[in-house]
Amino acid sequence: METLMSILIGLFFAIGTYLILTKTLLRIILGTSIISHGVHLLILTMGGVKAGGPPLLGFEEITFTDPIPQALILTAIVINFATTALFLVLSYRAYKVIGTDNTEKMRGNEDE
Amino acid sequence: MKEPNDVILRSVTKVAVVIIFTFSINLFFSGHHLPGGGFIGGLGFAAALTLLFLSYDIETVRENISLDFKKVAVVGVLIAVGTGLGSFLFDAPFLSHTFDYFDLPIFGKTELATAVLFDVGVAMAVIGTAVTVIMTISEDR
Amino acid sequence: MVWLSIIILVPFIAAIIVPFLYKVFNQKIHIGWFVLFIPFLIFIYLLTYIPSISAGKTFTYLVQWIPTYDINFELYMDGLSLVFGLLITGIGSLVIFYSIFYLSKEREALHNFYVYLMMFMGAMLGLVFSDNILVIYVFWELTSISSFLLIAYWYQRQRSRYGAQKSMLITIFGGLSMLAGFIMLSIITDTYSMREIASQMDLIHGHELFFPLMILILIGAFTKSAQFPFSIWLPDAMEAPTPISAYLHSATMVKAGIYLVARFTPVFGGTAEWFWLVSGIGILTLLYGSINAVRQTDLKALLAYSTISQLGLIMSLLGIGSAILYFGYNDESSVYAIASLAAVFHLVNHSTFKGSLFMVVGIIDHETGTRDIRKLGGLLSFMPISFTLAVIGSFAMAGLPPFNGFLSKEMFFTAVVNASQLEIFNMETIGVLFPVIAWIASVFTFVYSMILVFKTFGGKYKPKMLEKPAHEAPLGMLIPPAILASLVVIFFFFPNVLANYLLKPALASLLPEEVTAVDIEMKISAWHGWNTELFMTIGVVVIGSILYILLKKWIGLYSVYPQSFTLNRLYDSGLAKMESGAKTITDQYMTGSLRAYMIYIFSLLIFVWGGALLLPGAFSIDVSNDAPVSFYEVGIMGSMLAAALTVLFAKSRLTAIIAVGALGYLVAIFFVLFRAPDLALTQLVVETVTTALFLLCFYHLPKFKKEKEKKGIPFKPLNLIISLGVGTVVTLFAISANSSRMFEPVSSYFEDSYELAGARNIVNAILVDFRGLDTMLEIFVLTIVGLGVYTLIKLRLARREKDEGAE
């Protein structure tokens, strides 16, 4: 399972990276989304999968899956939501001001 | 834009929003012992509001819920920081939490934890931010 | 002793309050009157320590700051820091009093001025009263920063900005090198406490890092105290308002370097390197400063060079005094103790006479509108009081009786004459240069002191060249220099009062205990009989007078020295070259193309992670511990991959967005499979909101355009290679991380969450209780994002409405 997951995560990274390297803003944002899914799964897989029950006390399970990766990912999901929102707004504002969504045409001024 | 006419969506929304709200609040409070908590509760709440925005237009929702969600977010952060600072009053390190069991009239023996106060701050910050983001984007025409 | 920390804190608190006071009171009253209380009260408070300090006591007060790293806010007061504390607050009070009349409350941004000044004062007090070297460093840089702000106080002027930048670059550079030295010191001694470091002197002397760390710390001291060749920033710092020049750039901040050298004398003293560097650079600076001062036409520039040269004098005295640590105590070495005494004595004297001179120059500038010697002259009849003060100040500077400068100058001559007879550190060969250089420098000192007085107050009055008719300054501006000038005279007649109560306790921090334990003969007296020193002084006066009278004949010699070889030119061209060089290099790779930057990042990732995997034993694969895979899981994985590929190949925006949403929901299902209910819930809701967000935004974004590439290939080869590389590296990394678990998970601690936090949901307990700080910072980020989005959109709306209104 872990090995299979590792390959899947690698593919997510590859697809995400390719999207980020394109020039269209929306594609770049979608790429970051895919990469962040990859990261979440990576952290979770590294914590060991199916090692025990959910990390809730008071049920009959005695062993639990590692709760730390879960706490980390929970934080990451919310932060990812926030950054995606900011990224989206930033990109469509950039599009409205500059008039293009091609990052190759968005370069700073020469005198900066 | 053309006036949208989604009778079915609106009728469903009216019921669904109440259910989602209730569920979010339940999720929020169960967070201490069961899956749930400030983040999920807050996001669920925000999702319900988003549904309202999508099925009705912004102005209608604005008239009925005249909250400034930026302030909700900021108050949430302040509550969270406040619970952290509160632990200084008891000569404990920043953000120390405690809990105890009380016999309340209706609920019986209930656990009250200061961590829940902190979670209220988290939930408010999440609601405030998510709703602010969505509202401002949809207002920008 | 808690008061010791409060006096450091008070100026900083005042710096916060001052702007509010300014807002409320500026219409009615000059806020300098409020600020004046602070240094004055601290000064009075510090005075009460004199009896106990002179009895040999020291005081400490410890505030825990970062105890884990042994960095504590440890305050320490001994004789040396008390002398500095009194100088800082005493001169500070006078300077603030003076500034009330110098800076008009109608025209100047007083709140800025006093905020910076209070910040400086607090930093300076912190610097001299701290024992921890890292705390010293923090305060040290804080003085540099406040000095920068004060020099640039009139930031509209180009010269001010230039001077501020120069002083900042040079002193911060010195500070950083000092920090490196401090870190080496703490590596050797394993402590940050100044006193503990001093007690491990032998260990430091024997260590191989001894010489580099000494150089680094000395660079810090030399840049701050404007020693040659770092002295170039001080003349340009004269663009600051005159009260600041009097305070920071003659009386206090530039003496921080002296303070540092004095503090470190017990650590480094007694070695040949220290002796030669400190006294050699000091005496060179003395000569350089005094020769350059003579050619200046701006009165403040003249004073700046004179300050440089006087700082060099003090520095060289400290160097000579350190020789005593080589000898230990015996009858002969007491002469070197006198050098150290002279250093501290001259430090105080210089603050008094140079402070008063700066204030007088400020008065001249303020009342005539110029400080150019060529335009001034004949002010004697208009400004008699200022003239008297100038005479006292500059005669003290020239080393004439009956002023305190005479005493310390005589002691300086004694020290250099004795030093030339030293038989250590190769002094027998070139030691004779010391008295010769000292004497030449003194002649020039005499000449520029005379220029200062007689070119401005004597000669012909030239009203046409002045901006306003000359007249005497208001009483308030005359009181502070008058107080300093009277101290100049008082110290001459009663030097031993000062010596017994302040200077000797200060020496105790400089010299080994056995020296101060035996009360050596250290009386300061004006008359020693007809000895070498007196003849040297007489020679200075005679030759100096002749040179001054013949000034016009030889001043042209200065222009023989080519301008292109000055240190300033070197600094300017060096700075310009660095700027253009940095721009050339940066332009090579900072092309402005986002894609290029992403390529750098991903290539580095492949390079570093891939490189790490190539290390022996880094890559391993072990599938034996893998959890079993069920058919459904493979199905979900396949769907996830399909969703991701759909995003990649989607032709329309909507397809891509929906595919990403589907991917998110599938990930949520995976979280369920992986026993993470909290995550699954969160992921579901977040994905819903995010998709809504995408749909809202895509309305504003343009359609996908076909990215036109070379014919035949529907993708960019470089992009494909990089992305495949990243994917491969991540996969290999994940596999080998999974196959080689080296430690037990720490999560068993959190499994006690019910006992520790009263929560059965471990994940939630981690989030709100165990790692509450992380969550708190996270909601900070969230809120900032919310506000950021709001501003991004609303600000533009507001601007657009305004534009439309204008049309």
**Per the principal axes of the C-alpha atoms, what is the gross shape of chain C?**
elongated
Rg from alpha-carbon coordinates of chain C:
35 Å
Bin the strand percentage of chain B: 5-15%
Radius of gyration of chain B: 18 Å
Topology, pairings included?
The complex is a heterotrimer of chains A (112), B (141) and C (807).
Chain A (H helix, E strand, L loop, with lengths): L1 H19 L4 H22 L20 H32 L14
Helix pairs in contact in A: 1-2, 2-3
Chain B lengths: L6 H24 L7 H18 L2 H7 L4 H21 L9 E6 L3 E6 H26 L2
Antiparallel strand pairs in B: 1-2
Chain C lengths: L1 H24 L6 H16 L2 H5 L4 E8 L4 E7 L1 H24 L7 H20 L3 H19 L6 H32 L4 H6 L1 H6 L3 H15 L8 H4 L5 H10 L4 H13 L3 H24 L3 H23 L2 H4 L6 H35 L15 H15 L5 H17 L6 H4 L2 H25 L17 H19 L1 H16 L2 H5 L14 H18 L1 H4 L12 H23 L4 H21 L16 H19 L3 H21 L3 H22 L18 H23 L13 H5 L4 H9 L1 H35 L1
Antiparallel strand pairs in C: 1-2
Helix pairs in contact in C: 1-2, 1-5, 2-4, 4-5, 4-12, 4-17, 4-22, 4-23, 5-6, 6-7, 7-10, 10-13, 12-17, 13-15, 14-15, 14-21, 15-17, 15-19, 15-21, 17-18, 17-19, 17-22, 17-23, 18-21, 18-22, 19-21, 19-22, 19-25, 21-25, 22-23, 28-32, 29-30, 30-31, 34-35
Membrane topology (chain A): Multi-pass membrane protein
InterPro entries (chain A): CPA3_antiporter_subunitC, NUOK/Mnh_C1-like
Organism (chain A): Bacillus mesophilum
Structural notes for this entry:
Chain B: Its main location: membrane. Chain B: Residues 8-131 form the Na+/H+ antiporter MnhB subunit-related protein domain. Chain B: Keywords: Cell membrane, Membrane, Transmembrane, Transmembrane helix. Chain B: It is a multi-pass membrane protein. Chain B: It is found in: Cell membrane. The complex is a heterotrimer of chains A (112), B (141) and C (807). With 112 residues, chain A is mainly alpha-helical. Chain A contains 3 helices and no strands. Chain A is elongated and about 60 Å long. Chain B is mainly α and 141 residues long. Chain B has one domain. Chain B has 5 helices and 2 strands; from the N terminus they run ααααββα. A two-stranded antiparallel sheet of chain B has the order 1-2. The longest helix of chain B has 26 residues, at 114-139. The radius of gyration of chain B is 18 Å and the shape is globular. Chain B starts with 6 loop residues before the first helix and ends with a helix. The model of chain B has no long low-confidence stretch (mean pLDDT 78). Chain C is built from 35 helices and 2 strands. Chain C has a two-stranded antiparallel sheet. Chain C has helices at 2-25, 32-47, 50-54, 79-102, 110-129, 133-151, 158-189, 194-199, 201-206, 210-224, 233-236, 242-251, 256-268, 272-295, 299-321, 324-327, 334-368, 384-398, 404-420, 427-430, 433-457, 475-493, 495-510, 513-517, 532-549, 551-554, 567-589, 594-614, 631-649, 653-673, 677-698, 717-739, 753-757, 762-770, 772-806, and strands spanning 59-66, 71-77. Helix content of chain C is 72%, strand content 2%. In chain C, a hairpin with a 4-residue loop joins β1 (59-66) and β2. With 807 residues, chain C is mainly α. The relative contact order of chain C is 0.06. Among the domains of chain C are: 272-529; 557-590; 594-742, Four Helix Bundle (Hemerythrin (Met), subunit A); 747-807, no CATH class.
